[in-house]
């Protein structure tokens, strides 16, 4: 009996040890190992590596710990991406500000020097009537150029601050086209502005000043980018919408630049060709047209010219302001 009891005792001890070992093995696999994995991933996060590689399996609180840890890592990764995006926007903003300062200093210097120079000549010297008229015309032209640059920069500031305000009224697009064509027809002896309009008025509901700004930008660009001269055709027609086209016979836009043509401050080959401008006209034009519920696009062939098309609904949106934050592009 004693021997049997001893055997049973040792058997019970062996069974207990075996159960303890099995329990330890189970705890190691189900708890200790997952905890070590979480600790390892925590160290990776501390080093800035946010791509957590954890499954969500595990008993009770261990599984909950893994899921919470994965959620925390995902949130940190999202916050890091948001900070990187914000930093990129800040860097881009600083770059654009530097570019704006460069453009302003370059674009203002030339007309200002002309104005000061010819004004000085008129003050200090006796000039005949013909030269006096020519000098005054140059002063007037360069003054208008400065005013246009100032208007563009102020409009960009408005777009940066928020909605583009519109003063809506009935606008006769035909009359607007004729007026702008007449204004620009005297600016270049090398260009002929050909106006093609239907006999009946083309009426939209819009902001007459802003729409005139769009037409002025398009006609001005057509003249600037065809310095050899030629015909600038300005036409308008009506079907379901009112469509305005401005066509030139100039340089045309290379295919690799077309995706950026409405980007703010983008000037393409203009700087290399010595063509003045701020790189803002088309960005502003697009914002104005879209604020009216319309669209602007272009077709171009290198060496053959470019045609810009503006489509306007007959009745603009009732809203008098449109967010312009994502519509900041530029002309070349």
State the gist of this model:
With 332 residues, the chain is of the alpha+beta class. The protein has seven helices and nine strands; from the N terminus they run αααββαββαββααβββ. β7 (295-301) and β8 form a beta hairpin.
Strand content: 5-15%
Number of helices: 7
Instruction: Provide the low-confidence segments as ranges.
Output: 317-332
The description of the largest β-sheet is: 5 strands, mixed
Tell me how many strands there are.
Answer: 9
- Distance between the first and last residues' Cα: 107 Å
Overall geometry comes to elongated
Give the ordered list of helices and strands: HHHEEHEEHEEHHEEE
Radius of gyration: 35 Å
Arithmetic mean of pLDDT: 78
Strand order of the largest sheet: 3-5-6-8-7
Structural class: alpha+beta
**Helix content percent band:** 55-70%
